[in-house]
Amino acid sequence: MRVKEQLVLLKKLKSNQSLINAKLNIPGPIKNNTYLIQVFCDGLKRFLQESKVDYQLIWDVATGPEAFLILNESAETSKQTAIEFEDNDNLGRLFDIDVLTENEGVPHPLSRNDFHQAGRECIMCNQPAKVCARSRKHSVKEMQNYINELINKNMELL
């Protein structure tokens, strides 16, 4: 369903617009509840505060809240904004904000490498996130506890 929606929206893009697909990175079986929806909606507002949104669709699904956005700015500008938000917002580490382009009829997310940026760091230990994920360095319970503490510490943002 996600890819179908992305393809429909990619075909609607005008020049100098970008398609964003935003989600939360929440480990474990519970990916959606009232608490997480609030974190998502409030974080999305902070991410979009400087952007002009031409289209917005929010899904409330079992895999977690998800947004599809068309912004009136280039994909490159949107990706730089996404990187800045993910790296510097107090709760930005919980977000996965993809900026999508079309490559041979398939949605293709721009990567941090495309902008000479290092990959994302682990939310818990600042090692490369992919390394920790592959090795399962941190248990789901440890990550959930860390994320709960992070959210509670930043309640003034919500």
Automatic annotation (TrEMBL):
GO BP, sorted A to Z: prosthetic group biosynthetic process
Domain of life: Bacteria
Alphabetical UniProt keywords: Nucleotidyltransferase, Transferase
Catalyzed reactions: apo-[citrate lyase ACP] + 2'-(5''-triphospho-alpha-D-ribosyl)-3'-dephospho-CoA = holo-[citrate lyase ACP] + diphosphate
Pfam families: CitX
EC number: 2.7.7.61
Matches recorded under InterPro entries: CitX
GO molecular function ontology, one term from the record: holo-citrate lyase synthase activity
Xref: NCBIfam families: citrate_citX
Name assigned to this protein: citrate lyase holo-[acyl-carrier protein] synthase
